[in-house]
Amino acid sequence: MATGGIEDGNPPLEAGISQADMDYLHIFDIKKMTDAVAAGKTDLINGFPVISLETAASEGILHFAPEPKSPHGADVTPDGEFVVVSGKLDPHVTVYSVPKIKAAIAAGTDERDVFGVGILDFDTVVEVQVEVGLGPLHTQFDNQGYAYTSLFLDSAVARWTLGGSFSDLHSEPDWELITKTPVHYNIGHLATAEGDTVSPDGKYLVAMNKWSIDRFNVVGPLLPQNFQLLDISEGGETMPVIYDSPIGVGEPHYAQIIKADKLKAWEVYPEVGWNPETMSVDPRAVAPGDEGVTRSGNEVTVKSTLIRSHFTPERVNVKVGDHVTWHMTNLETAFDATHGFALPGQNINLSLEPGEHQTIEFDVTDEGVFTFYCTEFCSALHLEMAGFFMVAPN
Amino acid sequence: MQRINEIKEKAFGPRIPREIVFRDRFRFILPTLLMLTAAVVLFVSTFFPYWHMDMEAPQYPRGLEMTVFVNHVEGDVQEVDTLNHYIGMRPLSEAGELERSLAVIAIGALVMLVVAAIFIHNPCALLLTWPVILYPGIFLLDLWYWMQNFGMNLDDSAPLSSIIEPFVPPLIGEGKIAQFTTYASWESGLWMSAGASVLIILGIFFHRRAYKPLLDEAKANRQQHENQ
Questions:
Q1: Percentage of chain B surpassing pLDDT 70?
Q2: I want to staple A394 with a disulfide (CB 3.0 to 4.6 A). Which of A283, A320, A386, B200 is the partner?
Q3: Which residues of chain B does A13 touch, with a Cβ-Cβ cutoff of 8 Å?
Q4: Which residue of A15, A91, A211 is in closest CB contact with B59?
């Protein structure tokens, strides 16, 4: 196993990790795992029951299947019959047959790795290898019998045909590269609409590219990454890039596209005073008219409400050494009427969506006059939605 | 004095009798001019590129390029080295170190040989110039030697050593390495040195034509002298 350490004369991790000719696809039997846990064949690590590698090997929970080295993606076809693996350094995608894997496990294997894990025969479990191009990484699927694999070195998306139950969905021969569309540049992951579910759906593919180079105006050496939208609805050799979108924060990994009508989100919280953590009205919620500041020893309790465009109360007087408990309820019921609450000097920043309640606590250490104010542009008088937090010396 | 003149004539060939110089000036100026031009062109070539490679790949929309001079390499050397480390190729700075360090001195020496040949009027002139004539070929051979030396000796513990078979990039024309297409071309410096070779061959031809009659005459005189 490569452990790195060029400072000690070891090969760098980038070389050491990719030395072996094959890596292993890890195949877990979830049923046997639950049986092992039920039978108590686990070790307790930090209070968690863990199945050890020895147990996984001896109970037949884990099997290995050789795969081209530096593998990316173990993407299961929508019908669950195949697993697509890309060895980054091999121009093929390797398609494993799930039934063949099950049969090979049932037939048993004498070959074991150093930890005693059974190794399945490559040719026995592989359905086919499809040559797609240089640097294949991840694979997604559509509802037309195609698979889409990102090609890092070729900087392209490859469309290829599936076999098995997908054979009738497309007119081309099974397991064949159909076309490649260049993307800009150095694609890593990709996403088709619901493309790794049992029922892929939709017309689009997003290529998540690590480099944008010359796609946008250069405003300095730190460039955005680039999400590109591809129209995959036509099938065959047509697969154009239709939109570039700069992504400021690297690096884009797994994205999911789902149909919008699957989203059934609230527009505002169902009742005023809602606590999103408990998904119920918070008993500490402040009703209009109940606002105020009360003191018990050095315990200060503030009850506030927020509504366009003011906080109630607007002045809060405390002393150094006080412990403040601040209840805040956004009384808004209007769509998108979010208020913010910032208290500089106390390092406090909140976002209060319509109807939301939050309670915060802090110790007062510094004397002075601090302004608290709304941080969401809520109305024409947003700037005036402010108040003073005044701390007297003790 | 007579003896010294004899030795001089043996080493450098016959001097040109005064009366012929004026009568037949062009005959002697032509080879001198050709060889002097060759010497100058050869010297000037050290300032010009000899060999160039363009590299194209999807993630390099502007491409990469490298230009080889006799004593240094210009262009995207660092980026090429960064890419080469994946396939286990040694840094380009380790190629032809001796050649690059000696190139200017060596070419200076070649230039001196051509100049010397102008003053030598016997067949030794050819002997002096043939290394200069062969020089462009020697350059290409050396370049090929280093390309095959680097391309065929990839470090097999490199990250991508398993997908790149050892290879020799073409000395001229198109090549393909992984996602890169390479285009190699011979550049002005190399063409200048080749031109110098042609000029020297012509120069030697006219040089011989100019001085052979004098040599023959001297030889005949000597024989006559001995016979008497």
A1: 100
A2: A320
A3: none
A4: A211
- Strands (E) in A217-335, as ranges, are 225-231, 241-247, 274-275, 280-281, 292-296, 299-307, 310-312, 315-319, 323-330
Tell me what pLDDT residue A129 has: 97
For B58, the closest of A69, A90, A155 (CB atoms) is A155
| CB within 8 Å: B61 and A214 | yes
Q: Number of CB pairs < 8 Å for A and B?
A: 39
The per-residue pLDDT string of chain A (394 residues; one tens digit each, 9 = 90 and over) reads 667 778 888 878 877 777 777 899 999 999 999 999 999 999 999 999 999 999 999 999 999 999 988 888 899 999 999 999 998 888 999 999 999 999 999 999 999 998 999 999 999 999 999 999 999 999 999 999 999 999 999 999 999 999 999 999 999 999 999 999 999 999 999 999 999 999 998 799 999 999 999 999 988 999 999 999 999 999 999 999 999 999 877 777 888 899 889 999 999 999 999 999 999 999 999 999 999 999 999 999 999 999 999 999 999 999 999 999 999 999 999 999 999 999 998 899 999 999 999 999 999 999 999 999 999 999 999 999 999 999 999 8
Residue type, B123: P
Q: What ipTM was reported for this prediction?
A: 0.76
Q: Chain A interface, mutation test: which of B56, B59, B154, most A Cβ atoms within 10 Å?
A: B59
B163 interaction partners in chain A (CB closer than 8 Å): 89-91
Cα gap A165→A176, rounded to integer Å: 15
Residue A324 CB neighbour total at 10 angstroms: 22
Nearest chain A Cα distance for residue B151, angstroms: 19
Segments making up each domain of chain B, as ranges: 24-227
Radius of gyration for chain A, computed over Cα atoms and rounded to the nearest angstrom: 29
Q: What is the CATH number of domain A274-392?
A: 2.60.40.420
Cβ–Cβ of A185/B61 closer than 8 Å? yes
Q: Do A89 and B163 touch (CB under 8 A)?
A: yes
**To the nearest whole angstrom, how far is the Cα of B98 from the nearest Cα of chain A?**
29
Select the residue of B58, B62, B158 nearest A154 (Cβ to Cβ): B58
Contacts of A316 (CB under 8 A, 6+ apart): A293, A302, A387, A388, A389, A390
**Residue B186 to chain A, least CA–CA distance (Å):** 29
The answer to whether A213 contacts chain B (CB < 8 Å) is: yes
Q: CATH class for domain A132-264?
A: mainly beta
Question: If DSSP codes are grouped into helix, strand and coil, which group holds residue A346?
Answer: coil
Tokens of B47: 């300032």
What does the domain layout of chain A look like in residue ranges?
Answer: 132-264, 274-392
- Which residue, chain included where needed, has tokens 């050890």? A52
DSSP letter, residue A173: P
Q: A261: which 2 tokens? A: 């009508």
Which is nearest to A96 in space by CA: A112, A111, A119, A80?
A80
Question: Among residues 177-196 of chain A, which lie with CB inside 8 Å of chain B?
Answer: 182, 184-186
> Minimal Cα distance from A182: which residue of B?
B58
Q: How far does B163 lie from chain A, in Å, by closest CA?
A: 6
B178 and A156 within 8 Å at the Cβ level: the answer is no
Angle at A134 between CA A133 and CA A136, to 5 degrees: 85
Distance from CA of A146 to the nearest CA of B (A): 24
The tokens of A2 are what?
């490569």
- Taking the C-alpha atoms of residue A133 and residue A90, their distance in angstroms, rounded to an integer, is 8
